[in-house]
Amino acid sequence: MHPGVFSAITPDKPAVIMGSTGERVSYRELDDGANRLARLLHDRGLRPGDGIALLAENHRRYFEVYWAAIRSGLYLTAVNRHLSSEEAAFMVNDSGSTAFISTKQLAPTALQIAGVLPRARVRLMMDGTEEGFDSYEAAVSAQPATPLAKRPRGDVMLYSAGTTGRPKGIQRPLTGTDIDDPGFVGISGAERGLFGMSETSVYLCPAPLYHSAALQWSAGLHEMGGTLIIMEKFDPAQFLALVERERVTHTQVVPTMLVRLLKLPEAQRLAADVSSLECVIHAAAPCPPDVKRRMIDWLGPIVSEFYGGTEGVGLTFLTATEWLSHQGSVGRAMLGILRICDDDGNVLPTGEIGTVYFERDAPPFEYHSDAEKTRESRHPGHDRWATLGDIGYLDEDGYLYLTDRRAYTIISGGVNIYPAEIESLLIMHPAVSDVVVFGLPHEEMGEYVHAVVQVAEGVAESAEVADELRAYARARLAGYKVPRVVTFRSEIPRLPTGKLLKSQLRDELLRAGA
Question: What are phi and psi of 465, to 5 degrees?
Answer without folding.
Answer: -65, -40
